[in-house]
Write a structure and sequence with these properties.
Helix content is 25%, strand content 22%. It is of the alpha+beta class. The protein has two domains: 127 residues, N-terminal domain of MutM-like DNA repair proteins; 124 residues, Helicase, Ruva Protein, domain 3, CATH 1.10.8. The protein has a four-stranded antiparallel β-sheet, covered by helices on one side. A four-stranded antiparallel β-sheet has the order 2-3-4-8, with helices on one face. Strands 9-10 form a two-stranded antiparallel sheet. The longest helix has 20 residues.
């Protein structure tokens, strides 16, 4: 599933390539990924100019402005396999469900699993549909984050994956962040001091910045706006490397399950305190 770095790369590409461009048409092949009818979607967006793309956690909100100053907002959640991209020689296949026609430029929306959602919402920053989502992980201050997580008794990995606490981290970057902070994924935040928790948050933001700069991480389906896979995979220290030697100490990386999610950690660098 695309996490914050992958979504940020898509948002930046949409913003860089389409800001100020008018949406002149919308082809709908499969309306099931829309939160409203195809007719309502076209009526709201076609003829308006894309003015910005706002990202919060794993969500994007596309801002469209009409000639009369009216605004419409399209919230996009890529979920597992949603993709925006433009390729000059691309012939749409059966997985392309939407084609956004931006003044002669076709932007394809492709989703193999059909789990993604594109919803018209009433606000471009804080729509009601995001009321259950916590602050963005890249923007949240430690004082606010600590209040949300510091006294909790659940495994820290499960809490970092909880989008209601802070939005954006997924399985890949949680494993990487905890490794860099030297924290076992089953550790309870209530057993950690403020300094260690501060380092977890700091490392999480650091990992995501690196991943953004490398175009995100691709294991299976993720492609960026130009159809290219993310190349952060080669930078991963633990995720996807169970059974291999730790790049810091040489110990065999272990695999386990935390909160129903596959987890990789170093038993030496991330020893569980007793």
């Amino acid at each position: 599933m695309p996490e914050l770095p992958e979504v940020e790369n898509v948002a930046r590409a949409l913003r860089d390539n389409l800001t100020g461009v008018r949406l002149t048409g919308l082809q709908v092949g499969f309306a099931g990924i829309l939160g409203q009818s195809a007719r309502k979607t076209r009526s709201a967006l076609v003829g308006k100019v894309l003015t910005d793309v706002y990202r919060h956690g794993k969500y994007m909100i596309l801002w469209f402005e009409g000639d009369d100053g009216s605004m419409e907002y399209l919230m996009v959640h890529l979920r597992m396999t949603g993709q925006f991209f433009i390729l000059d020689d691309f012939v749409p296949d059966k997985h392309v469900h939407l084609i956004f026609e931006f003044d002669g430029l076709d932007v394809h929306y492709r989703d193999i699993r059909k789990f993604s959602r594109l919803d018209l919402v009433e606000d471009g920053v804080a729509p009601a549909a995001l009321a259950h989502v916590g602050p963005d992980m890249m923007k949240v201050r430690f004082s606010e984050w600590h209040k949300r997580i510091g006294s909790r008794k659940a495994p820290i990995k499960s809490l970092l994956l909880n989008q209601g606490i802070a939005a954006g981290l997924g399985n890949i970057y949680v494993d990487e962040s905890l490794f860099l902070a030297g924290v076992h994924p089953e550790t309870r935040p209530c057993d950690l001091d403020s300094e260690t928790l501060h380092d977890v948050l700091k490392r999480g933001k650091h990992v995501m910045r690196l991943a953004i700069n490398h175009g995100g991480t691709t294991f299976m389906n993720f492609r960026n706006f130009y159809g290219k896979p993310g190349n952060f995979r080669r930078k991963l220290r633990v995720y996807g490397r169970g059974g291999q030697p730790c790049r810091d100490c040489g110990s065999k990386l272990e695999k386990t399950v935390v909160g129903g999610r596959g987890t990789v950690f170093c038993p030496e660098c991330q020893a569980l305190s007793t």
